[in-house]
Amino acid sequence: MQEMPPITIDVVSDVMCPWCFIGKRRLEAAIRAVPDLDIQVRWHPFQLDSTLPKTGKDRQQYLNDKFGGADRARHVYSQIELAGKSEGIDFAFDKIKLSPNTLDCHRLILWSRADDLQDEVVELLFRAYFLNGENLADAKVLVRISEEAGMQSDLVEHLLATETDLDKTRQQIEKAQESGVTGVPCFIIDSRFVVAGAEKPETLAAALTHANETRTSADMPSFGSS
């Protein structure tokens, strides 16, 4: 009997999205709730704002432009802070001085797949931005994160100075949009089921269980195969 491959979870995400950080925590809890399942998580790029300059934009100006004023922004982010605390995340939005263009972050995540370090890199990017207020548009920060994750940081430093995989990253973002992804996080389970938004762990766990129970031995198309 042919052994079934792992259940894939393709996570479409942007590292400047606080709900994606919350979604990661909830996904981790969901996976812990189904310990008997063989699961493979893969991360895919999305950009909440592709118009941001490469060097980023002043955070306060970005929030004013997006929400129409500081009061509205504070209200929105107060709700996110509460949701974060429930998942053990102490968001430090006041530390963030720059809203980054995240294309280089997504290139780093793409390169980390070769060493099976995507989860580590995504986690470190989220922590650097949302807990420490670091500038993710700064190549030095990304190189340091690559080293902390166990990547070849000297190679990363060289690649970031080039346009390597920029077009590929943009194409992957376009592919997600063409597949119907309009917001993040988005979890594509076993290339068959979609859970949109940072749903509760029990919802994600139920989707994983259902995916496992309805699998067949036929080859399945893969969201992240190209």
Automatic annotation (TrEMBL):
InterPro entries named in the record: DSBA-like_thioredoxin_dom (IPR001853), Thioredoxin-like_sf (IPR036249)
Ranges for domain DSBA-like thioredoxin come to 8-208
Pfam families assigned? DSBA
Is the Isomerase keyword given for this protein? yes
Give the molecular function GO annotations: isomerase activity
Keywords (alphabetical) are: Isomerase
Annotated CDD domains: DsbA_FrnE
Where on the tree of life does the source sit, at the highest rank? Bacteria
Carries keyword Cell membrane?
no
This one is known as Predicted dithiol-disulfide isomerase, DsbA family
Gene source species: Roseibium denhamense
Source lineage: Bacteria, Pseudomonadati, Pseudomonadota, Alphaproteobacteria, Hyphomicrobiales
